[in-house]
Structure to design on (433 residues):
């Protein structure tokens, strides 16, 4: 049998998609990149926004159209929260987040009965899974270390799909998983979770302790990158880790969501703009180029023009190296969906345009500031003689290099679109000579 497997959404979904692929491969099912010539199509869905839900439905309908006779399986957050909508897309098997861990059992059952089935249960499972390799990325690997969220952001549907209890993967399992991936040749390990900064709250551990154990127990040339983490969860101990260990990338994705304290309070985000700026000051006291990327929600219920202007001001002051902007959309069952004073769609569009303009200028200034500096790029691919990869600050580089999967010292020459053009360090002296 052959299967096509893909995902939408976050890095946690990407990690869990690799787990699905490994389950299928262990059962002798060949995973193919072509959905038209397989027996099974699997989509790991997302529902974090209306747009993500729409893309999930669209992708499922496309898979059904491309391969009418294949078993079509939808797993993940959208399946977990809105199975009825998924049914209408011609899906045969609809599984929640817990069930994706045992997808083979459900596939075999369907092959015997060939009846549409919905299986969704509470996401209260322990986190103990391990990935051995990544088909999608040959040089970077993701390690999910935590699931669940005990925060109550008023706009967010994720805890309904992922559970409100923090569930942390044991330290020894994470360390072994990282060790195996590094020994397999992966040079960058991204630690990810639904609420990464809360890692260990259920076990008495914490993120800093985990990092210490990884750096102590895992030999070899590699680096660690942390994925999304909230302002209030970035401790002094964690900041100190950036100061003392060069293997920890000087980059954090900190989703600030708004530059207005009033809106942050309405969102139930539990921090202030002043705390954001103080955090950035501390990080950049370690490294003046410390890279912070962020998420911003545009048009939250009750957001005035004044609130939005404060967000623009924060983006400029914070010097974010990248901004992921989202237009607010009601998520069923959330407190924000019941709030009044909804911002009209055309006003959301206007604000989104302005935010993107400001964010792009700020990001361009950040990249310009890198010119002439030495960076370490993980070369990920080559195309037409040009290599591409990201540095420790999560800036994309173009350079001439023959080595893929290698951490390479480069000098930044100039900005280029959303990234920079670089040259292998040392070659610039040769050119002068």
């Amino acid at each position: 049998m052959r299967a096509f497997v893909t995902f939408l959404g976050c890095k946690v979904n990407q990690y869990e998609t690799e787990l699905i692929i490994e389950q299928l491969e262990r059962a002798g099912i060949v995973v193919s990149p072509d959905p038209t010539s397989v027996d099974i199509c699997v989509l790991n869905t997302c529902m974090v926004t209306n747009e993500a839900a729409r893309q999930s439905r669209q992708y499922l309908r496309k898979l059904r159209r491309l391969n009418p006779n294949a078993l079509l399986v939808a797993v993940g957050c959208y399946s977990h929260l809105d199975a009825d909508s998924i049914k209408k897309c011609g899906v045969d098997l609809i599984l929640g987040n817990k069930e994706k861990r045992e997808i083979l059992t459900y596939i075999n059952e369907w092959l015997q009965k060939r009846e549409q089935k919905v299986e969704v249960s509470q996401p209260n499972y322990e986190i103990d899974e391990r990935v051995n390799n990544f088909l999608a990325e040959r040089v970077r690997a993701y390690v999910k270390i935590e699931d669940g969220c005990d925060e109550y952001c008023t706009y967010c549907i994720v805890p309904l799909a992922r559970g409100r209890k923090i569930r942390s993967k044991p330290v020894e399992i994470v360390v072994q998983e990282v060790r195996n991936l590094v020994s397999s040749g992966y040079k960058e390990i991204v630690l990810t979770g639904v609420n990464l900064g809360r890692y260990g709250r259920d076990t008495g551990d914490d993120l800093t302790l985990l990092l210490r154990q990884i750096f102590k127990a895992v030999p070899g040339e590699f680096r660690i990158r942390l994925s999304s983490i909230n302002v209030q969860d970035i401790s002094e101990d964690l900041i100190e880790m950036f100061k003392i260990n060069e293997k920890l990338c000087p980059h954090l994705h900190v989703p600030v969501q708004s530059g207005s304290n009033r809106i942050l309070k309405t969102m139930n985000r539990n921090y202030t703009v002043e705390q954001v700026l103080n955090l950035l000051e501390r990080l950049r006291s370690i490294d003046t180029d410390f890279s912070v990327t962020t998420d911003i929600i545009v048009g939250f219920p009750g957001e005035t023009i004044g609130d939005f202007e404060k967000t623009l001001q924060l983006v400029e002051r914070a010097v974010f190296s990248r901004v992921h902007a989202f237009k607010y959309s009601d998520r069923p069952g959330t407190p924000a969906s019941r709030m009044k004073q909804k911002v009209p769609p055309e006003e959301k569009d206007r604000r989104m345009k302005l935010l993107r303009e400001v964010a792009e200028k700020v990001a361009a200034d950040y990249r310009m500031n890198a010119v002439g500096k030495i960076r370490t790029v993980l070369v990920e691919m080559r195309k037409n003689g040009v290599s591409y990869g990201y540095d420790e600050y999560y800036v994309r580089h173009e350079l001439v290099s023959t080595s893929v999967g290698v951490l390479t010292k480069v000098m930044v020459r100039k900005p280029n679109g959303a990234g920079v053009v670089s040259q292998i360090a040392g070659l610039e002296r040769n050119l002068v000579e």
Remarks:
- The chain has three domains: 2-119, 140-368, 374-432.
